[in-house]
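Proteins fold reproducibly. Look at a sample protein:
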Amino acid sequence: MLASLLGNAFDNIVPFVLIMSALIFVHEFGHYIVARWNGVRVDVFSIGFGPEITGWNDRHGTRWKLSWVPLGGYVKFFGDANAASAASSDVDTMSAEERAVSFHHKRLSQRAAIVAAGPIANFLTAILIFAVVFSIIGQPFTKPVLTDVVAGSAAEEAGLRPGDRVVRVNGAGVERFEDLQRIVQMRPNENLRLDVERDGGMRSINATPRLYEMKDNFGNVHRIGQLGIRSTSVEYVRHDPVSAVWYGTKATWDVVTTTLVAVKQMIVGARSTSELSGVIGIAQMSGQVAKVGFMALVQFAAFLSVSLGLINLFPIPVLDGGHLLYYVAEALRGRPLSERVQEYGLRFGLLLVVGLLFLTTFNDLNYRLNVFGFVSSLFS
């Protein structure tokens, strides 16, 4: 097992580093370009953390650099004390010329736009990737018409029949069978109201997906809902550029909503946190997707781009969403939160992020690589 882990490490790490570095660049460039548009001086643009590997200074005085730890990046604005954009100690004593280019002296709306630009850049990148794929290869499009209902399944018990066309689920329109699959899989043991077209008429059917555990191609175990229905009329539809952007936007939104539903289910205990993957798990998936083909890797990058943008919008101090939360409080109060409150918030946020890192790393080692089982077997 150990030899296998070491042998696959290089194949996993290279695609992971390339994808994440590209997505981090996109994210930080979003911050950078909006900051420049708003007259903020950018001191450092770094891909990675830690000591610098290589870098250069542009004509605006920005140090562009590549650092040794490729697990993130940052843009350091003039007036920042560190990569987390905490204000420097001399921010209140700056000259008029320095205030004009300082991030911390910009209007609230400008600061909010600069912070939000990173996640927005990730969402726009995902939309662009999906749009290109849907234009060149096409989008999987299966009519939401049931060709088979499994005997004894939740669908049969609910009264669904072959030939039924599912039009809406809980009031939301269904264009493709893939949309129906996504909704059902994310809502095990939840009652769903299906508006079904049958024999020229409409009827509503209540169905509850049963909970199943399945293992994907990467060895991850997922708890999903299943009704026991199939549709076999699968085809790939290539869209014109305008339609491709629309469907790319819809695909991006689907990833966002699916992720948020999963997070909610984990919070209330309806879904296990063991499904969370960390750096090791994502690296492993990157390597395996790369073996499938280039276009598969590109689409995987789109999913990761959405995830990166969404995670950064979570209202946790040290993340972009935490900064935006501070700005909402500043808008409501008419003045910024005290430095003490912000400092405690940053510490709490850092604690949450570190805790999440430990949890996802444990999941990767225990559930995906079975490292703990392997170590245990050495002493049994």
